[in-house]
Fold this protein.
Amino acid sequence: MGFLNFLRRSKPDNSQEARRNALLKNGRMTDAVIIDTEINEAGEEIVHLVYNVQGVDFESSEILTDEQRLDQLKYAPGATVTVRFDPRNHGNSILV
């Protein structure tokens, strides 16, 4: 029966939404600083940020949601924001 259960198991969901939900549920929080913003070809605003975990700096970027784009000052260069990161992979993070 064990082999049949192996065949029936569902494949892991590797989508961005699944990653975001996992980090919102299990991620640890820290502060980050926005270092730059840009608009891509699709008109989406991308923020570049840096955060520090256990003395190591990590740099990340994320596309802002429509809701986040409404608060331009919160995501301006130099602003401090909160990120959630994976405690097993500190480079995996999302903007909160």
